[in-house]
Specification:
single chain; about 425 residues; mainly alpha; Growth Hormone, Chain: A; disordered C terminus
């Protein structure tokens, strides 16, 4: 019999071989998914926040006015996403992705020319719709549609581009701005990203099933109206789950330096703490692939929220500066796990034929969550409600979300999960639950 260290080592090697075979067999699609997630950073709040001081100063607008404009733009972008996201079911992936990425490049160019409020508004609208919304939607939906076996690992590799962008872009953008100015830095990044993505899109091929067969299969699936989805309680349970973490994360991200100032923490410490979000989000993504393939997204759907619950209550009861990186680490872990688990759950419930349609609705809800988080937080912050109190209520909100999500579990799932030995969480044989 193998000793425990030898058994763990064998499972680790087996798991690495599984990842290697997956990548070698599908490298074009996986690289596409990773880079699409990576360049979605152009539309993410953390990226936009880097340029916020320059726009506020040059256009003479207040932070409050910008926050309100940002929320309105994000909501309109979310509505447009719900209308355009479904076309990934009927348009070849390479053509669809080329349109999305080309539009993103145009939106970044608009932002580089933002010398007045009108151009800034248009640029922000386009970059939120195409960057945060359509790029993320295309990457995850494109991967989920083409993979049945190893879907979890494929999704986790693809979505890994998001924490990579969160970690890398601040180190690139800030020196670039100091050297070339904020406007030129956006132009340079648009050109470089286009040079990187053009050959990737040109070489894009689907694994296993031909594009013609996939579109034929999607066309055979009867379309479901939005009203039909809205009548389903499980739609609203999934919607609540998808809404919660982005709602909280975006609020904290946008006001993290104000939070740090209120608690007496330095800007450098806040930035250092935020890096833990990217690192542990990546760790969560790596874990989520194997876990999803082993236990299914549906069974993990409520459980990935547990680290975020711990994070919320931990920061709510302590003002110690060393709690902040731990808070971001736990929050990042839930975010990383959820990126794969949420998409896998939607695929398991609704199937892949109309995944683009249903994911466009859920992606809209996610974007609305990111739009509402900052103004809700600002509302309480302006009324002297402490960050600790806000996070305590956030913890309760996440608990309610987790309980609601557990109602989607197949019968007996909790008992089966409780009976799984710890060794089953390794890289070995897939669980039979």
């Amino acid at each position: 019999m193998l000793s425990l260290p030898a058994e763990i080592n064998k499972k680790g090697i087996t798991g690495m071989l599984e990842w290697y075979r997956l990548f070698i067999g599908n490298k074009r699609l996986l690289v596409f998914g990773f880079l699409f997630s990576f360049f979605s950073s152009f539309g993410q709040t953390f990226f936009i926040s880097i340029f916020l001081p320059f726009w506020v100063d040059s256009l003479h607008i207040t932070k409050t006015a910008f926050g309100s404009l940002y929320a309105i733009i994000t909501i309109f972008a979310a509505v447009l996403l719900s209308l355009t996201g479904k076309f990934i079911d009927s348009i070849p992936l390479r053509k669809y992705a080329s349109f999305v990425f080309g539009g993103l490049i145009v939106s970044v160019i608009f932002l580089s020319l933002a010398k007045n409020i009108l151009i800034l508004t248009l640029g922000l609208f386009l970059v939120r719709w195409l960057g945060q919304g359509m790029m993320t939607h295309t990457a995850s939906t494109g991967i989920a549609k083409y993979f049945d076996k190893d879907r979890g690992k494929a999704l986790s590799f693809s979505v890994m581009g998001q924490p990579a962008g969160t970690f890398i872009f601040p180190f690139i953008v800030l020196p670039l701005i100091s050297l070339t100015g904020w406007s030129n830095s956006l132009l340079i990044m648009a050109i470089i990203s286009l040079m990187i993505m053009a050959p990737v899109l040109f070489a894009l091929k689907s694994p296993g099933i031909s594009e013609k067969d996939r579109l034929s299969k999607s066309a055979d699936v009867e379309r479901t109206s939005l009203f039909t989805y809205l009548k389903s309680i499980r739609f609203w349970i999934i919607a609540l789950n998808i809404f919660t973490i982005p709602f909280i994360c975006t609020a904290v991200f946008l006001y993290q330096y104000s939070i740090g100032e209120a608690k007496g923490w330095s800007v450098a410490w806040v930035a250092f703490s935020f890096s833990f979000f990217a690192i542990f989000s990546a760790a969560g993504l790596l874990l989520s692939g194997n876990l999803t393939d082993r236990f299914t997204g549906l069974r993990l759907f409520p459980l990935y929220l547990i680290p975020a619950i711990l994070a919320s209550f931990l920061i709510a009861v302590s003002n110690n500066q060393y709690v902040f990186p731990v808070f971001y680490a736990l929050l990042g872990l839930s975010s990383g796990l959820g990126s794969t688990i949420k998409t896998a759950t939607q695929t398991e419930i609704y199937g892949s034929g109309k995944l683009g349609q249903v994911r466009s609705y859920f992606s809209t809800i996610l974007v609305i969550g990111t739009a509402l988080g900052p103004p809700v937080f600002a509302f309480f912050f302006d009324r002297n409600v402490s960050f600790n109190t806000f996070m305590a209520f956030s913890g309760v909100f996440i608990i309610i979300t987790a309980i609601a999500s557990s109602f989607l579990w197949p019968s007996g799932s909790l008992k089966k999960l409780a009976a799984i030995p710890v060794s089953a969480l390794g890289m070995g044989k897939k669980s039979k639950i």
